[in-house]
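> Could you send the Oligosaccharide flippase family protein prediction when you get a chance?

Sure thing. Input:
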Amino acid sequence: MSVFKKLAGDTALYGVSTILGRMLNYALVPLHTYVFRRPGELSSNVEFYSYVAVLLVLYTLGLETAFFRFAARKPEDRPKVFSETLSIVLAISLVATTALILLAPQITQWLGYPGQELFVIWVALIVAIDAIMAIPFARLRVENKTKRFVKARLLNIFIVVGLNVFFLLFCRDIYNGKYLTSLQPVIRLIYYPEIGPGYIFLANLLANATYFVLLRDAFSGFRFRLNWPEARVLLLYAFPLMLTSLAGLVNNVTDRLALRHWLPESFYPHLTNKDVLGIYGNCYKLSVFMALAIQSFKFAADPFFFSQAEDKNAPDLLARVTKWFVIVCVLIWVGVSLNLDVLGLFLSPAYRQGLDVVPLLLLGNLFLGIYYNIAFWFKLSDKTAYGTFITVIGAIVTVVLNMTLIPVMGYMGCAVAFLVSSVIMTVICYFQGEKHYPVPYDIKSALGYIGSAGLLIYLAWQIQIENIWISLPYHMLLFLLYIGVMLVVERKTFQPVWVKLSGRLRKGEKGLGQNV
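Output:
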C-alpha cells in the first residue's frame, strides 16, 4: 500500500502543475475566441501547435525515457547518462531549428499561411527550448525533486497567461484607445495589430525562455559529450520509443493537420475551411480535462514503474492502478460531457457549434490513457518494438479513417477516427501484453464503467434543456447519482478506508471530551 500511496502522491503533485496549467491555458480560450471572433484567425495556431507536438518528438528521439531507464539501472552513471542524452538533444535542436528558420518562407507557402514567417521562427524556437528542457525535467523526476518540477511548471504557466493577457487585452485595448491613452506611444513600440494571434506564440516563447533561469542548477555537472558507443546504446533503446511516440502523435494530431485540406469547400455553409479548423481546434481543447489526468499520471508513473520493475508484485500493482485510473477517467468523461452547455459558454458563440465532438474526443483520450497504462509491459520487458508496431497500426487507422470520414462527416469524422484508433490500439496492446507480461486486469469492471457511462451520456443528451438554470442542476444530479452508484459498487474497496477514518474521528471526539 505504501508504494501505491507514493504513486498517488506523486501523481497529485505532478497533477498540480499539469491540471492548473491546462486549466489556466483553457482559461485563455475565452480570451482567444472573443478577441479573434472569426474562427479562421486561429486556424494557424491550431495547425502550428499540432506540428510543435510532432517536432518535439523528433527533437528528443525518445531520449527522455532512455534516460529514465539507464539512470535507474545504474544510479552511479546518472551524471554521464545525463550529459550524453542532453548533448544529443542539443545537437539535434541546433541543426533542426536552424533549418526551420532558414526555410520559414517556403514552409508558410506550403502550409497556406503566407506572411506568417515570423510565426514559424517563433514555433521553431519554442520546440528547441522544450526539447532541451525535457532532459533536465526528466532528471528532476528521476531524482524525486517533484516540488522543483512543479514550481518551474507553475511559474511558466503564470508567465504564459500573464503575457497573453498583456498582449491581447492590455496592449490591444490601449492601442485602440479604450483606456490609458497616454501610454499609446510606448505600446506602439511593442504591439503591432498585424501580428494578431502570433502573440500567442510569442507569449509561449518568452515564458519558455525563463526555464533556463528557473532550472539553471538542473544543468549542474553537464559536459557536452558525444561518445558514439554510449550514444548508440541510448539511441537503440530510444529509437523504437520515438517511433512509437511519433505514430501516437499521428493518431493525435492528424485530425487538425488534415481537416482543412481534406474537407470539401463549403461543406459547412457560410464557413471557410480555416473557420472549421478554428472551431474544431478550440472545441478540441475541452478534451483537455481527460488529457491532463493522463499526463499528470504519466509524469509520476514512468519513473515509478521502472523503479518497481523487479518487484514480483508489480503486475498486481499495475492492475490495481489501472482499475482506479479507469474509474477517475470515466468520472471526468461523465462530468464534462454532461456539462458541455455550461463549459461551452467559455467559447465565443461562433465556436460553439463544434461541441458535439467533445464526448467522442474524451472517450478516445480515455482509451488512449488505458493504452498508456497497459503499455508498461513492453517498456518493463525491454520489448519496445511492440509499442512501435501497435502505434503504427493506430496511426494507419487514424489516417485512413480521417481520409474516408472527413469528406462525409466533417469534423465529426475526425473524432470518430480518433476514437476507433484508440480502441484498436488498446485491444491489441492488451492481448499482446497478456502473452509476454501477464497482468490480472479487471476487464469486467473497466467495461462496465465505460459502458454505463456511455449510456448515461447518450440518454442525457436526448433531453435538451435550453434553460441553463434548469439544465445545470439536472446534469449535476445525474453526475452525483453516477458517483453514488460507483461508491456502492466499490464499497468493499472503500470499507477499510471508512473504518480507518471513523476510528480517527472517534479518537478525536474522545480526546476532545477528555479535554473538556
